[in-house]
C-alpha cells in the first residue's frame, strides 16, 4: 500500500471512531431527554417530592443541588486557587513539593463512595455535624480539590514563561506578575476546570448519600434566615440532591409514578449541567476580554 | 577623556549547578550608546546580559560571584531592591512578549504599577514612548486594540515602548530582532540609533552585520570568557585576538 492510501485509510478509521462516539452520546442524550422532558413542567420543578402518592415534584432537590454546588465551589475554589498558585509559581522543586503533588494525584483517583464514607465517619459522626448540607459540601470539596488544584496549576503553567519574565523585567513584583498578568491569562483554562468540576459535583450521588443525606426535609422558601431550621439556606439540614433522588427512587421508590419522576429528574439534571456549562463558558470569555482588554 | 561608566563588572563568575557558564568577566559600559555582545551560541553572552538586571535569579541553582555595579551601587548587594533595579535596567526579549492587554495598557503597565494615576501624564507617556519606539504611526488609531493583534515587528516595538515608558537608564536587548523579518529588524535598528543619545543600550546579537552597523562598542564572548572588547570598528577591522578574527571571518562558530 502506498502512503496516500494508508493516510486515507487512517483518516477513515479515525472519522469512524469519532462518529461512533458522537452517535453514542447523541443516543444517550436523546433517550434521556425524550423520555424525561415530557414529564417536566413548572409544577414538577417547583413542588416537593411525595413518598407514597403520585404527582410529586423535585423542587427541593433541585434547589439543594444548586445550593450544594455553590457551597462546594465556595469552599474548594479559594483553596485550590491558593494551592495551585503556590505549586505553579512558588513551590521549590524538592521532595516535599513532589510529595504534595503525589498526594494530590492519589487523592484525585479516590472513589467517590470512599470519600462519602470518610465524610460520614469524620463529619457526620465524629464532628457531630449530622446528615447535613455542610457535611456534603466538605466531602465534595475533598473530592473536588485535587482536580481543581491540578487544573489551576496546569493552567498557570500553560502561560508562557516569557510573560513572567516580561512582568519581572518591567519591575513588577512577583505577586503582581502572578495576579495581574499570569492569572488573567490562565483564566479561561481555570474556568473550564471549574465547569468540569461543577458538572461532577452536580451529578455526584455516592459521596452524598452518607453525608448530605437522603431526605429532603420540607423547607420554607419564604424564610431566608440561614439559622432557621426550615430555611433553604440552613447549612445543617439534611439535603437530598437531584442525583441522590434519582438513585433513591430507582432503588426504593414506592410512589406510583417513580419511573416518570426518575426520567424527568434525569432530563432536568442534564439540562442543568448543559446550561451551567454554556453560561460559564460565556462568562469566562467575557471576563477574559475584560481583563485583557482584547476584542 | 574617559567616558563616564554606567555599569561595571569585575570578575563575574556564574555557575549553573556545577557548570561554570561565565568564567570571570571584567566588562564596563560607558553611559549612552549601543554596546553589542557577540559570540557563538552558548558562549555566555545572554547569560551575562541577564546578570545585569538579575533575571538569572529566577533560575534555580544559579550561583553568581564577583561584582556588578550600576552607578557604583552593587546590584547583588542584599540592600538592592530587584524591583527598583529592573525599573532602572529594562529588558527586551528575543520573542515579542506583550501582555494580553490593549496596546495602551501594555505601555502604561509599569507606570500604573508604580502608582501613576494622572490620566494626562499616562496619555502623554504612551504617545512619547510609542513615538520613540517608532510604532506610533502604526497604532495611534487603535490604542485600545489588543497588542496581540499586531504583527511580530509591531509587537516587539510596543514591548520596547513598554520599557521606555518607565524611563530606565539602561536597556538590555536579548537578540531583539532575531524573530523579526528584515524590514521590521531594520525599523528596530533605526529606532535604537535614535535612542542611543539618551539611553545605554546593551544588545546581544547573532547578526554580525547588525552589530557592526549600529553598535559603538563590541564585546566578543567565547566559552564563558570575554575574549576582546573595544570600539566596534576596531573589533571588526582590526581585532587583536586570533579567536575574534577567526569568529568574525567565519572560520568557526
Give a structural overview.
The complex is a heterodimer of chains A (295) and B (253). By secondary structure, chain A is mainly alpha-helical. Helix content of chain A is 73%, strand content 0%. Chain A has one domain (40-292): MetI-like (MetI-like fold). Chain A has helices spanning 3-36, 42-46, 59-90, 95-108, 112-126, 133-157, 161-169, 174-203, 206-209, 242-252, 258-292. In chain A, α3 (59-90) packs parallel to α6 (133-157) and α3 (59-90) runs antiparallel to α8 (174-203). In chain B, α3 crosses α4 (119-132) and α3 packs parallel to α6 (152-165). In chain B, a hairpin with a 2-residue loop joins β9 and β10 (225-231). The model of chain B has no long low-confidence stretch (mean pLDDT 89). Chain B contains 10 helices and 10 strands. Chain B starts with a strand and ends in a 5-residue tail after the last helix. Chain B is of the alpha/beta class. Chain B has one domain (5-249): 3-Layer(aba) Sandwich (Rossmann fold), CATH 3.40.50. A 6-stranded mixed β-sheet of chain B has the order 6-7-8-3-9-10, with helices on both faces. Chain B has a 4-stranded antiparallel β-sheet with strand order 2-1-4-5, with helices on one face. The radius of gyration of chain B is 18 Å and the shape is globular. The interface between A and B is medium-sized, with 24 and 32 residues. Chain B: GO terms for molecular function: ATP binding; ATP hydrolysis activity; phosphate transmembrane transporter activity.
Keywords summarizing the entry:
heterodimer; A: 295 residues; mainly alpha; MetI-like fold; globular; B: 253 residues; alpha/beta; Rossmann fold; six-stranded mixed β-sheet; four-stranded antiparallel β-sheet; transmembrane helix (chain A); Phosphate transport system permease protein PstA (chain A); MetI-like_sf (chain A); cell membrane (chain A)
Amino acid at each position: 500500500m502506498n502512503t496516500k492510501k494508508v493516510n486515507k485509510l487512517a483518516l477513515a478509521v479515525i472519522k469512524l471512531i469519532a462518529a461512533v462516539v458522537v452517535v453514542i452520546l447523541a443516543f444517550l442524550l436523546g433517550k434521556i431527554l425524550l423520555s424525561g422532558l415530557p414529564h417536566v413542567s413548572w409544577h414538577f420543578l417547583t413542588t416537593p417530592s411525595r413518598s407514597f402518592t403520585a404527582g410529586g415534584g423535585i423542587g427541593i432537590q433541585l434547589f439543594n443541588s444548586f445550593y450544594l454546588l455553590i457551597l462546594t465551589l465556595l469552599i474548594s475554589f479559594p483553596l485550590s486557587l491558593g494551592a495551585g498558585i503556590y505549586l505553579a509559581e512558588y513551590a521549590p522543586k524538592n521532595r516535599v513539593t513532589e510529595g504534595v503533588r503525589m498526594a494530590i494525584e492519589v487523592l484525585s483517583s479516590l472513589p467517590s463512595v470512599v470519600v462519602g464514607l470518610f465524610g460520614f465517619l469524620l463529619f457526620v459522626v465524629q464532628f457531630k455535624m449530622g446528615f447535613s448540607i455542610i457535611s456534603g459540601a466538605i466531602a465534595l470539596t475533598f473530592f473536588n480539590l485535587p482536580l481543581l488544584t491540578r487544573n489551576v496549576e496546569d493552567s498557570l503553567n500553560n502561560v508562557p514563561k516569557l510573560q513572567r519574565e516580561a512582568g519581572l523585567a518591567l519591575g513588577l513584583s512577583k505577586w503582581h506578575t502572578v495576579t495581574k498578568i499570569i492569572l488573567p491569562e490562565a483564566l479561561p483554562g481555570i474556568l473550564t476546570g471549574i465547569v468540569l468540576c461543577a458538572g461532577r459535583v452536580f451529578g455526584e450521588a455516592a459521596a452524598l448519600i452518607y453525608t448530605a443525606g437522603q431526605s429532603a426535609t420540607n423547607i420554607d422558601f419564604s424564610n431566608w434566615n440561614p439559622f432557621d431550621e426550615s430555611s433553604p439556606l440552613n447549612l445543617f439540614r439534611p439535603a437530598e440532591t437531584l442525583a441522590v433522588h434519582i438513585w433513591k427512587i430507582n432503588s426504593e421508590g414506592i410512589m406510583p409514578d417513580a419511573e416518570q419522576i426518575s426520567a424527568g429528574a434525569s432530563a432536568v439534571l442534564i439540562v442543568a449541567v448543559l446550561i451551567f456549562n454554556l453560561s460559564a463558558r460565556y462568562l469566562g470569555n467575557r471576563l477574559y476580554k475584560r481583563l485583557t482588554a482584547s476584542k | 577623556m574617559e567616558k563616564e561608566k554606567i555599569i561595571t563588572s569585575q570578575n563575574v563568575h556564574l555557575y549553573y549547578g556545577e557548570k561554570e557558564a561565565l568564567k570571570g568577566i571584567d566588562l564596563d559600559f560607558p553611559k549612552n550608546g549601543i554596546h553589542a555582545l557577540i559570540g557563538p551560541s552558548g558562549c555566555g553572552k545572554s547569560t551575562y546580559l541577564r546578570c545585569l538586571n538579575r533575571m538569572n535569579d529566577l533560575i534555580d541553582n544559579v550561583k553568581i560571584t564577583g561584582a556588578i555595579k550600576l552607578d557604583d551601587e552593587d546590584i547583588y548587594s542584599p540592600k538592592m531592591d530587584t524591583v527598583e533595579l529592573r525599573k532602572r535596567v529594562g529588558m527586551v526579549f528575543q520573542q515579542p512578549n506583550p501582555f494580553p492587554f490593549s496596546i495602551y495598557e501594555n505601555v502604561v503597565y509599569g507606570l500604573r504599577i508604580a502608582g501613576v494615576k494622572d490620566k494626562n501624564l499616562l496619555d502623554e507617556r504612551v504617545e512619547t514612548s510609542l513615538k520613540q519606539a517608532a510604532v506610533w504611526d502604526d497604532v495611534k488609531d487603535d490604542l485600545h486594540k489588543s497588542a496581540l493583534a499586531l504583527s511580530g515587528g509591531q509587537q516587539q516595538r510596543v514591548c520596547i515602548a513598554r520599557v521606555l515608558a518607565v524611563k530606565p537608564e539602561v536597556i538590555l536587548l536579548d537578540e531583539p530582532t532575531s524573530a523579526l523579518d528584515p524590514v521590521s529588524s531594520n525599523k528596530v535598528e533605526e529606532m535604537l540609533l535614535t535612542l542611543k543619545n539618551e539611553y545605554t543600550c546593551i544588545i546581544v546579537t547573532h547578526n554580525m552585520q547588525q552589530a557592526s552597523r549600529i553598535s559603538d562598542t563590541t564585546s566578543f564572548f567565547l566559552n564563558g570568557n570575554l575574549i576582546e572588547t573595544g570600539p566596534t570598528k576596531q573589533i571588526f577591522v582590526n581585532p587583536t585576538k586570533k579567536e575574534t578574527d577567526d569568529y568574525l571571518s567565519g572560520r568557526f562558530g
